[in-house]
Each structure stands twice: as C-alpha cells, then as structure tokens.
Specification:
Helix content is 45%, strand content 13%. It has 16 helices and 13 strands. By secondary structure, it is α/β, with parallel strands linked by helices. β12, α14 and β13 form a beta-alpha-beta unit.
Length: 368
C-alpha cells in the first residue's frame, strides 16, 4: 500500500511552538502522517532557546532558515523556500497556527498550489489593520478550508466575512501546553537573581515588543517612566525582547531603564516564563498569547494596546485593556494592588484537550 500523503505542519515564531506542541503529538497518536516545517522566522538561542526541548517538539523535518527582515522580504522569502518543500512533499494539506508571517506565507503558497489549508486559532480579530498580525489572520482565514477556533466569537467574525466552511470550535491549544507544562515551571527564586526576596504575589511581570509601543521614543520613554513609578510600589521583572532591547539602546534609554529599578532579564524559556507569570501579582503586556495564559492562570493582566483580538480574556478572563497611556496603567495597577483586580474564570473548552479535538477531526480526513 502506498504511503499516505503527510500533513505539513508549519511553525515559524516563538508563539507557534507552544501551539504546535499540543497539536503534533495528538496527530501522531492518532496515526495522522505529518512532517514539521520550521521556517526560521525566529531563530537563535535568544528567541528559541530550549523551546523545542522543553516542549517535547521533535527536531523539524525541514528548516527553511529564513531569518529576520522586513515583513515583505520575510514573507516573500518564506514563500519561495516553502514552495520547494511543498512541491517535493506532495502533502495532503498544510496546517498553520496563529498569525505570524510564516502563517500567511505558507497558507498562500498552499492555496496557489491547490493544497488544502488548515488554520488553528482561526477567526480572532482586533479590527486594527495597522497590526501586521491582523492582516495575516484575515488573509489566512480566507485561504483556509478547515478553521479551528478558540472561542465562539471567532465563528461570528468568520461568518461576518463570508466564511462558513469547515469551522470547528475546539478550544485553545495554548492552554493545552500551559496545563501540561505548569507542574514543571520553577519558582521565581530559581529564575531571577534579585537583590531582595521575591515570593508569590510580591512582584509584577512586564513584556513589551509591539512596534506601536517600542518603535518610537515618544511612546517607549513614557512607558519606561510609568513602569518606574509602578516599581516604586511593586517590583517589576522585565524579560527583554530583542526588538525592545535594540530600541532602548538606539534611543539612548539605557540609563533610564537602569534608573527605573526594573529587573531586566534576557529572553526566557517557556517554563521559566510560565513560572514567573504563575506567581506574579500582575502582568503588563502587549502580547496576545500572554493575555490568554494569564486568564488560564487567574493572574490579573493589563494589556498595553488599544484593543485585543482575544476579547474573551476581557469579558470572561483577567485581562483589562489600558492602552499605553501611563495614567490608565497606573490607575489599573492601583486597583489591583488594592485588591480590586479581575478574578475572571476559565473560558469554555480551555480544558487542555483542544489538540485532541483537532486530531480527531483530522484523523477522519487524513489518517490511512
């Protein structure tokens, strides 16, 4: 009997790894033939670190080694290199996750070659087209034949855009990985070398990397000063994204960062970051994934963006939208420190079994 054509499962950037860590094992357990393609959109020890080892993801079958560049260059380079892999593989379908450049680039190549596209985490919308991720999300969903959603509102978004085919509400694969890895997350004292004791609930965590927050000194400087004000009342730990680190240096804000009293760290591995968030009093972020993770952990989250593509983290979870306005941030921090932060609840189907649901659906279509 001839070998069944595989699914090509694509990862490219750090958030993709946590999602694929839930999907890939579930597919293989059900006998769905699949091959892992890493585009190399994020690369090197500072961004990938031990993610593959920590999450139990096997070495990729293909590494396109694209590297960094402008959105247009990176997307085009991924498309050129992925086309060769797709043609050689004779794949049954291409499975993409999330909303990064690798997601839309590989989906577009597959669609042009008449290969079905499967999108995990479909239908999320910020309704802000200035975000590159929003463009990636919209286009990928238009190209997909199977669309797996994390929350019910995502289906409403898809139907509004005229997409009614192949929609399945399966839950959140990010939470699958979080629940599996949480027992391995270390205590904060094993992660941070602090001049003063850090215990559960005694500190906050900050992550900033969005261009809207870090690419202009007139935005980044007030944010750093605001964080310095917060740090007077609550120690803050800031794992620095390479983009943010580069902007701080380019804008001459290194001295300001040091004066704020923030505990700046290099990028952390997944379980280390999970441990920091689990024991934090609050998290301030502009990351979409962290909004979901803090909701699952029951930790108050402040999102330094004007909106979110994950509204369920606000309506049901622990997330509050503050934007990057220092006064709103300080007011929201004050509420949390006074015991008035959101308690939230766990959204529907965020139960650690989303990957299993996806695999069960794909088994019917693609297993031998």
């Amino acid at each position: 009997m001839p070998e069944k054509a595989p699914l090509l499962c694509v990862v490219g950037a750090r958030p993709n790894f946590m999602k694929m860590a839930a999907v890939l094992p579930a597919l293989r357990q059900r006998g769905v033939p699949c091959r892992l393609v890493h585009t190399g959109q994020h690369y090197g020890a500072d961004m990938m670190g031990s993610f593959f080892d920590q999450l139990g993801i096997p070495a990729p079958d293909e590494n396109l080694e694209v590297g960094s560049g402008s959105h247009a260059w990176q997307t085009a380079e991924i498309m050129k290199r992925f086309e060769t892999v797709l043609l050689q593989s004779k794949a049954a379908a291409v499975l993409v996750v999330g909303d990064v450049n690798s997601t839309v680039a590989c989906a577009l190549v597959a669609a042009k070659l008449q290969v079905p596209v499967i999108h995990v985490e479909a239908g999320l919308r910020s309704f802000d087209r200035t975000m590159p991720e929003e463009i990636n999300r919209v286009l990928t969903d238009q190209l997909s034949q199977l669309l797996f959603t994390t929350e019910r509102e995502a289906e409403v978004n898809l139907l509004r855009e005229g997409i009614s085919r192949g929609i399945h509400f399966v839950g959140n694969v990010m939470i699958d990985t979080l629940l599996r890895m949480l027992p391995l997350a270390p205590q904060v004292s094993r992660i941070v070398n602090s001049p003063f004791p850090l215990e559960k609930g005694s500190y906050g965590v900050v992550t900033l990397h969005r261009p809207s927050n870090v690419d202009a000194p007139e935005t980044l400087e007030p944010l750093l000063r605001c964080l310095g004000e917060v740090a007077r009342h609550l120690p803050l730990i800031l794992p620095l994204h390479p983009r943010t680190q580069n902007r701080i240096e380019a804008f001459g804000l290194g001295a300001l960062l040091q004066s704020t009293g923030l505990l700046a760290l290099p990028p952390l591995g997944y379980v280390e970051m999970l441990g920091l968030m689990r024991d934090a009093r609050l998290v301030l972020t502009d990351s979409g994934g962290i909004q979901e993770e803090t909701t699952a952990l029951g930790v108050p989250c402040l999102t330094a963006r004007p909106g979110t593509e994950r509204p369920i983290t606000v309506t049901q979870g622990t997330n509050t939208i503050t934007g990057s306005d220092p006064e709103r941030i300080l007011g929201a921090v004050r509420e949390i420190l006074e015991g008035r932060g959101k308690a939230g609840r766990i959204p529907e189907l965020w139960d650690g079994r989303a990957g299993e649901r996806i695999a069960a659906i794909l088994q019917e279509k693609f297993a031998p």
